[in-house]
Known about the structure:
Helices cover 37% and strands 15% of the residues. The chain is an alpha/beta fold and 201 residues long. It has one domain: Flavodoxin domain (Rossmann fold, 3-Layer(aba) Sandwich), CATH 3.40.50. Strands 1, 2, 3, 4, 5 and 6 form a six-stranded parallel sheet that branches. Helix 1 crosses helix 8. The longest helix has 15 residues. The radius of gyration is 17 Å and the shape is globular. It starts with a strand and ends with a helix.
Amino acid sequence: MNRAVIYACSHRRGGNSDRAARWLARGVCEAGGEADIIFVREHDVRPCLACGYCDEPGGRRGRDLCVLGHDDEAWALFEPMLSARAVLFASPIYFYHLPSMFKTWIDRSQQFWAAKAEGAPWLTGLPERSARAVFMAGRPRGDTLFDGAAVTLRYFLHNFSMTLAEPLTFRGVDEPGDIAARDHCRENITALGRTAWEESR
Ligand SMILES: Cc1cc2nc3c(=O)[nH]c(=O)nc-3n(C[C@H](O)[C@H](O)[C@H](O)COP(=O)(O)O)c2cc1C
């Protein structure tokens, strides 16, 4: 566990989440670490079939946990969740929640939920880690704007023995360049990347 992974979760290339992901990576580097950015939209991830195959892992692991494991790229996205020292997310809010491509991948983590329930040592033995998230939303207001995204991310991370630190949230960020034009966003997001690396020791 010697690298950070940052999941950039927008369907839009070059938008606010992509920029935030790069600032997070810069923060990790400033703290002496190295980070990989994964653009979720670039990966072919098929939806969970709810087929029940993963309900009985029976010692299976890796790609064999899921009936789709050899058919798409979901596992390539999961590998860093198992091995990264620090895990971060930069995501927009879509309809008060996470973007559908990101959520599709999250649904596929049902295989980890099942393996954890079975007590698979390669999963239950992972060290406790803290994950970070930056959320961006176009609306300037809304008490519950980030609640759906945060609760889903929290339970997803539980599969990997991670807890979610209080997310950094930005409202009224809509056009691709909005986050860059706003005072202090860059500093605050870079600082989050630094903290994530420093506190992961
Ligand atoms: C399908 C879709 C749904 C959206 N739903 C919401 C929403 O519910 N609330 C909100 O504040 N903004 C919403 N937005 C606006 C985005 O959160 C906003 O444009 C954000 O900056 C996009 O991030 P990006 O630049 O990383 O793509 C939505 C955008 C899209 C494309």
